[in-house]
């Protein structure tokens, strides 16, 4: 089954070079549906074992992230089906989309490679590959702004991933004393077996390098400068993947080093995770008060939520339980916002907030879905993000009442900022019905995602809850 997860995006890579993009959009639906069903099978059957000469493995942590990637990618493929047709109908050359599916499949392949990797070196290769594939997608529209965003993204993330490589090399230096110069010295499972024999100072230093290095790609402050530019310039379906799953793939690298330190009993690791999580949450909430573009605003919202997730993992307990749930719920909710922003951009071709108004009258369904999307990303009931945020807040308050107050203040500022910026876009004088130019999938998919967020509030599959509990236990030993 693991082999299928690699073969499907690889097949998409090949087919995208051989067939017309509109034909490929049909084939991609089948490929992505198969990928999702395979991920679903692995997740619910709990096949926790190693594969392909122990280079890859499945555990509760990465099976959960794998399912999140496959689910969001399936939504994105359906949305892209309509997005491409809408863009072409409005005059964009079909040739421009020739390599769209090629780079997207390369992106998915790279993330799966990193997520399922048991070898830290292979994880690093996969994460670096995501940088290369997404750089072409960020520069997709070939404007001055998109080239600049792509260049900044490559430079900053490559520097960060280089620091991550130093973390791996430093850990290898310690593990090589036990396993020698072999693949076992980079095997995550083998490292966990012998973690008590490793030098704790080296483990902690490698964690700090991983936190800063891989954290650059997560969007942790103050290494976040690439994030708003990349998210705002990429095609909207790609923005969904960047926000919803790429950041989590990079976070997995931090969590693996965090997991090693937790089992070794290095307590300082939690303090640093809490510090970077809160710093990211606090700064992002302040920056959201003054944003001129709606896609950049949603990008900073992603940064805010990743800070909250890191904070949940830092405090542990209820916080970690909520953080795992929030990974999934945030991915879906942010998909809603970037897809509806894609609808607005496809119709109005305008990014600036102050130049847009009257959306409630001109684009009724999109505006209504976006408004509910704002409520979901803010953690308001009846959306499932309410419960994931509540669990994280409870975990933080149990750790420190003062920190809990600061977190609640930051979330209130973020809530005010995102609504204060977006609500003026929705009100105003109508300029005529404009939503008719959009393909139906561009309306249906974000609406369906909202319904799923509501449904998960009232019914969460017991198996999902059990596996997340197992993931928490796995993370904290």
Main attributes of the structure:
477 residues, 2 strands, 78% helix
Q: Could you explain how this protein is built, in words?
A:
The relative contact order is 0.10. A two-stranded antiparallel ribbon has the order 1-2. With 477 residues, the chain is mainly α. The protein starts with a helix and ends with a helix. It is built from 19 helices and two strands. The protein has one domain.
Summarize the structure.
This protein is 78% helix and 1% strand. The chain is built from 19 helices and 2 strands.
| SS-derived structural category | mainly alpha
Number of domain units: 1
Radius of gyration: 21 Å
Per DSSP, the total helix count is 19
Helical proportion?
over 70%
Shape annotation: globular
Mean pLDDT: 93
Q: Which series of helices and strands comes N to C?
A: HHEEHHHHHHHHHHHHHHHHH
N- and C-termini, Cα separation: 27 Å
Strand neighbour order, sheet with most strands: 1-2
Q: Please give the number of β-strands.
A: 2
Please outline the major beta sheet.
Answer: 2 strands, antiparallel
Low-confidence stretches: none
> Which band does the percent of strand residues land in?
under 5%
Furnish the topology, listing elements before pairings.
Elements lengths: L1 H17 L2 H25 L4 E2 L4 E2 L2 H30 L10 H16 L4 H19 L5 H36 L8 H6 L6 H19 L7 H8 L2 H29 L3 H20 L6 H22 L2 H31 L10 H4 L1 H14 L7 H15 L1 H26 L14 H18 L3 H15 L1
Antiparallel strand pairs: 1-2
């Amino acid at each position: 089954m693991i082999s299928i997860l690699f073969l499907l995006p690889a097949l998409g890579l090949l087919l995208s070079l051989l067939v017309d993009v509109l034909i490929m959009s049909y084939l991609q639906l089948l490929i992505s549906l198969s990928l999702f069903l395979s991920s679903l099978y692995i997740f619910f059957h709990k096949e926790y074992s190693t594969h392909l000469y122990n280079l890859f493995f499945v555990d509760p942590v990465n099976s959960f992230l794998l399912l999140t990637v496959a689910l969001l990618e399936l939504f994105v493929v359906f949305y892209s089906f309509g997005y491409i047709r809408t863009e072409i109908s409005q005059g964009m050359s079909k040739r421009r989309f020739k390599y769209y599916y090629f780079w997207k499949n390369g992106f998915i392949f790279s993330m799966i490679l990193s997520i399922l990797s048991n070898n830290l070196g292979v994880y690093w290769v996969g994460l670096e590959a995501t940088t290369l594939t997404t750089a072409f997608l960020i520069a997709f529209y070939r404007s001055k702004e998109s080239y600049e965003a792509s260049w900044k993204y490559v430079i900053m993330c490559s520097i960060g991933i280089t620091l991550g490589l130093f973390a791996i090399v430093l850990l290898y230096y310690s593990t090589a004393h036990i396993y020698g110069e072999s693949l076992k010295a980079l095997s995550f499972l083998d490292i966990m077996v012998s973690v008590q024999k490793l030098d704790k100072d080296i483990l902690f230093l490698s964690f700090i390098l991983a936190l800063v290095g891989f954290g650059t790609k997560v969007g942790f402050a103050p290494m976040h400068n690439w994030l708003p530019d990349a998210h705002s310039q990429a095609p909207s379906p790609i923005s969904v993947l960047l926000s919803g799953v790429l950041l989590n793939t990079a976070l997995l690298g931090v969590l693996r080093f965090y997991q090693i330190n937790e089992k070794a009993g290095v307590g300082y690791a939690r303090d640093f995770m809490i510090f970077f999580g809160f710093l990211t949450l606090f700064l992002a909430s302040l920056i959201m008060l003054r944003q001129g573009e709606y896609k950049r605003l949603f990008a900073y919202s992603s940064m805010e939520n990743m800070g909250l997730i890191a904070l949940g993992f830092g405090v542990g307990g209820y916080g970690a339980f909520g953080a795992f749930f929030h990974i999934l719920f945030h991915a879906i909710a942010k998909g809603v916002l970037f897809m509806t922003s894609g609808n607005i951009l496809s119709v109005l071709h305008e990014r600036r907030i102050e130049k847009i108004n009257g959306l409630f009258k001109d684009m009724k369904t999109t505006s209504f879905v976006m408004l509910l999307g704002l409520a979901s990303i803010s953690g308001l009931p009846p959306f499932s993000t309410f419960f994931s945020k509540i669990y994280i807040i409870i975990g933080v308050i149990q750790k420190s009442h003062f920190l809990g107050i600061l977190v609640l203040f930051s979330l209130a500022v973020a809530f005010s900022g995102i609504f204060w910026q977006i609500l003026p876009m929705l009100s105003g004088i109508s300029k005529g019905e404009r939503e008719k130019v959009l393909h139906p999938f561009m309306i249906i998919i974000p609406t369906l995602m909202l319904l799923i967020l509501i449904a998960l509030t009232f019914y969460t599959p017991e198996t999902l809850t059990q596996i997340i509990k197992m993931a928490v236990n796995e993370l904290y030993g």
